[in-house]
Amino acid sequence: MLDCQDQDDARSLLGLTYQLAATRLTKLGETDLAWIAADRGLSAVRPVGDPAITGSLFRSVSHALLSTGRYQEAVRLTTDAADFLDQYLTDAGPELLSVYGTLLLGGSVAAARANDASTARTLLTAADEAATRLGKDANHLWTAFGPRNVAIHRVATAGELGNIQVAIELGPRVAGVQLVKPSGRGASV
Questions:
Q1: Is the pLDDT score of 30 beyond 80?
Q2: CA distances (Å), 13 to each of 4, 50, 54, 72, 136, in order?
Q3: How confident is the model at residue 185 (pLDDT cuts 50, 70, 90)?
Q4: Cα-flanking dihedrals φ and ψ of residue 179, to 5°?
Q5: Among 9, 59, 131, 172, which residue has the least CB neighbours within 10 Å?
Q6: Handedness of CA 145, 148, 63, 188 (dihedral sign)
Q7: Is 145 helix (H, G, I), strand (E, B) or coil?
Q8: Domain of life of the organism in this record (predicted)?
Q9: DSSP tag of 178
Q10: Based on the number of CB atoms within 10 Å of its own CB, is 63 exposed (0-12), middle (13-18) or buried (19 or more)?
Q11: Cα separation of 58 and 78, whole Å?
Q12: How far is CA 80 from the centre of its chain?
């Protein structure tokens, strides 16, 4: 029989497995299945209360919404998830900061695609604050998050918003930099 810690560990691993499935399913274009996987992952980790894994699953749902063109829903989920995670940020470790920042970056792209420049800037600023706290580029919980990823997303969102001059001005700051790339991750975001 499993003790409480073993049960929590098993639930956390199950949640991460569902998160991986949701990520892969989204890349395969199976966004409905990705949504189901992320939802089941959230149900698995809810009793554990691990904000980093919970945030990672929220990130997967937001990305699935973004991938299907449901930009406003992705922004809404991002802001709701960020509001939920805010309570854990005071003493956040690198995993939670990375998950939180990556969630915000995805939301900034969704906001830009929804033509909501103000929200895109707000989310980028919050992601930049998380990257500053993290202090370096890293790959906690498969996020490839840090200051460089924020800089890349600033260029991307400027382009999405049609601010080509801004994207051109920001581009040299990220051109040619060595990027942290998680193994098994393709070129698409």
A1: yes
A2: 14, 11, 12, 31, 26
A3: very low
A4: -100, 150
A5: 172
A6: negative
A7: strand
A8: Bacteria
A9: P
A10: buried
A11: 8
A12: 13
Question: Which two three-digit tokens encode residue 17?
Answer: 């497995």
In 3D, which of 94, 179, 102 has the Cα closest to residue 133?
A: 94
Whose structure tokens read 């918003």? 161
Phi, psi of 138 (to 5 degrees): -150, 175
- What is the tens place of the pLDDT at every residue in 40-73? 999 999 999 999 999 999 999 999 999 999 999 9
In sequence order, the β-bridge partners of residue 145 are 138
- The residue to which tokens 């700051």 are assigned: 173
What span, in angstroms and rounded, lies between the C-alpha atoms of 171 and 84? 33
Residue type, 93: G
Alpha-carbon distance of 177 to 150, in angstroms, equals 13
Q: What is the pTM of this model?
A: 0.87
Distance in angstroms (rounded) separating the CA atoms of residues 116 and 80:
17
Task: Indicate the residue type of 56.
Answer: S
Query: Rounded to whole angstroms, what are the CA distances from 98 to 47, 105, 111, 114, 165?
Result: 22, 10, 20, 24, 29
Tell me the pLDDT band of 188, cut-offs 50, 70 and 90: very low
